[in-house]
Design a protein that fits this description.
Layout lengths: L4 H12 L8 H7 L4 E5 L2 E6 L3 H10 L1 E5 L4 E6 L3 H8 L12 E7 L5 E11 L2 E6 L4 H7 L6 E4 L4 E7 L3 H7 L13 E6 L2 E6 L8 E7 L3 H11 L5 E3 L2 H11 L42 H10 L4 E8 L9 E4 L3 E12 L4 E9 L10 E9 L2 E12 L18
Parallel strand pairs: 3-13
Antiparallel strand pairs: 1-2, 3-9, 4-7, 4-8, 5-6, 6-7, 9-12, 10-11, 11-12, 14-17, 14-19, 15-16, 15-18, 16-17, 18-19
Helix pairs in contact: 3-8
Amino acid sequence: MMPDLSTRQALQGYIATPRLETPFHPRIAALSETHDWYTWAGYKAPHSVFDEELEYFAIRSTAALFDISPMVKYRIAGPDAQRYLNRLTLRDVAKHAVGRVQYTAWCDDHGHVLDDGTLFRLGPETFRLCCQERHLPWLLDSAIGFNVDVEEETARIAGLALQGPTSFAVLFRAGFEGIETLRPFQLAEFPHAGGSVTISRTGFTGDLGYELFLSADNALSLWDRLWAAGQLHGIRAIGYAALNRARIEAGFIVANADFMTAEATLRPDRARLPDEIGLDWLVDAEKVNFNGRRAILEARRKKTLKYILVGLDIEGNIPAEGAILYHRKMHEAGLVSAATWSPLAKRNIAIATLERPYGTDIVDDLWVEIYAARELRYQKIMTRARVVPRAFIKLDRRTANPPGLF
């Protein structure tokens, strides 16, 4: 049966609705040579800007600007904000000082990870939670009984990631006085355009870097300030492809790429406990209560964990994205979720999920099945893989105090 006129009009409107543009879009669009866009949380975002390879080397050699405005942002404030977040998240928020950033995650009552993200403590009773997916209904339901306000501020707050060895030099030249005192995972407010910008020494590249948040109304003036200051320091705008390579080198995971968030899973065996995706170190078992605590600790006690997320070193130079892992070339052991050839480490690296005991008790004789396109035909290559620690690279400049003026 054909839908009625109003339904057809609504569907046509939905299909015709363009992707949202971030406050920085005019500057990125003007620089774009590839016109290679993708959709991030409903926003138009660059997959690349001018050249994926050169954008990666901007991260590792100079300074790279990446628009993080589409990242979902929640403002959590009120007398019970700390108590509420302590119940919600895995880490002890009482130990989270004002002016600091905390990497954390949160679970459902079954202990399955709903998402991971960064928690900014802006004041004694004010926090900003940044994450990959939208969780407002869950956050509001979890707030029942707490004197706390939870609101999404994604559209109101613009965000930029400035990453790379000359990122500090760019901020210093741009006139952000006192930026040299900012330590890793610390944040501070700086004046800008009659208002302020929050700058944190954080990032998703494993390199020296910063993240900047301010009112969307002042976004373009911030971009112009950084761009002008960065001309002598090799500043470049980058897209997600370059950032993704850098985050794999750093061993960082992405929700709904390296693990499925509990709300997104269609099959019960796809959800993951923190210990199954390398987030066991986030769990503060000393906390009296938090969402999923009983299930997480019970799985540890009964040793019923089913999966493990690992780093892999793979022979050859063909990235193994989406490849299946085998033990002794016969028994299926797991799946590669992210892979790249690392120019910095000079290694073929990957992040993979293995089904225990593979990756724990059994780590020898692992093979990756790669299908490589050669002369218009796919060739199956069975290549050895070795379980190695994440991160794949460690850069002293990331944590140097004060950071170097490269």
